[in-house]
Amino acid sequence: MTYQEALKKAEEYLVSRGIDNAPVDAWYLMEYSCKCDRSWFLMNREKEMPGPLYARYQSMLSDRARHIPLQHLTGEQEFMGIPFMVNENVLIPRQDTEILVEEALKVIKPGSHVLDMCTGSGCIIISLMKYKQDILGTAVDISNAALDVAKENAARQGVCIDFIQGNLFQNIDGKYDAIVSNPPYIPTDEISKLMEEVRCHEPAGALDGREDGLYFYRQIITKSCGFLKAGGWLLFEIGYDQGLSVSEMMKSAGFSDVRVIKDLAGLDRVVKGKLP
């Protein structure tokens, strides 16, 4: 079977298994399993695919057909132009979260110390430190398994971050110039409605925002005032319908300049505010 035939067959197979973006996934799995790029493929597509490569490709397609996320098969996801290692212990970084990083970069000043709450893969704090290299970073997560992933990502990107295991502010000392967070914000009853890739293969603890999805915002907003310097910023990623609730919570806690920022689809995505 030629490379081109194998790719076409893979697309049809994934479509038949209900995989969204089947042609894209079929290509990425070929690229990964065969270690080829698009140019090489176009020049060699009529060649016979070696047996061992074809077997490896079929194995990965079979896993994807079971709705294992593509990123768990390749072990990587790009975020802010940076490759991050991912596995089943962390949320896969999403493009929407880049808006949180972009908004943080606008308000973080040189020499700032930034705390990343619920760091997961570390993609937020690592990206901030790569694009603003004169800041200090601290990252906390309740999951040691997630912190192992974040530490590996930091090592790969050559950034030095103070990683802390704990439940929110449990083991945090001192005050920070900014706190950024993408906390769990899916209401518990909504998790069963998520796509299978998310519901069955990403960590439930990083998704579940309790009954109304706002539990962690309440906790972080209430306690962050004791960990932010005067003039410090608090920035969250939020669900599309949480902008009003989270912004009102921040205003009630005494934050000023509270703003809701929309994503590229026009949906509420980030809330930020400043401690007077």
From TrEMBL:
In its UniProt record, a GO molecular function of this protein is: nucleic acid binding
UniProt: substrate binding residues: N182, P183, P184, Y185
For this protein, the record's CDD domains field holds:
AdoMet_MTases (cd02440)
Q: Which Pfam families match?
A: MTS, PrmC_N
Q: The Methyltransferase small domain covers which part of the protein?
A: 97-188
* Keyword Transferase belongs to the record: yes
Which SUPFAM superfamilies does its entry note? S-adenosyl-L-methionine-dependent methyltransferases
Kindly state which reaction or reactions the protein catalyses: L-glutaminyl-[peptide chain release factor] + S-adenosyl-L-methionine = N(5)-methyl-L-glutaminyl-[peptide chain release factor] + S-adenosyl-L-homocysteine + H(+)
Where does the record place the Release factor glutamine methyltransferase N-terminal domain?
A: 5-75
Keywords of this entry: Methyltransferase, S-adenosyl-L-methionine, Transferase
Question: Known InterPro entries for this protein?
Answer: DNA_methylase_N6_adenine_CS (IPR002052), HemK-like (IPR004556), N5-glutamine_MTase (IPR050320), PrmC_N (IPR040758), RF_methyltr_PrmC (IPR019874), SAM-dependent_MTases_sf (IPR029063), Small_mtfrase_dom (IPR007848)
Indicate whether Methyltransferase appears among the record's keywords. Answer: yes
EC assignment? 2.1.1.297
Which Gene Ontology BP terms does the record give?
Answer: methylation
Its EC top class is transferase
Residues noted as binding S-adenosyl-L-methionine in the record, renumbered to the chain: D141, N182
According to its UniProt record, which protein family does this protein belong to?
Answer: Belongs to the protein N5-glutamine methyltransferase family. PrmC subfamily.
Function text? Methylates the class 1 translation termination release factors RF1/PrfA and RF2/PrfB on the glutamine residue of the universally conserved GGQ motif.
Read off the PANTHER family from this record.
Answer: HEMK METHYLTRANSFERASE, MTRF1L RELEASE FACTOR GLUTAMINE METHYLTRANSFERASE
Please report the name of this protein according to its UniProt entry: Release factor glutamine methyltransferase
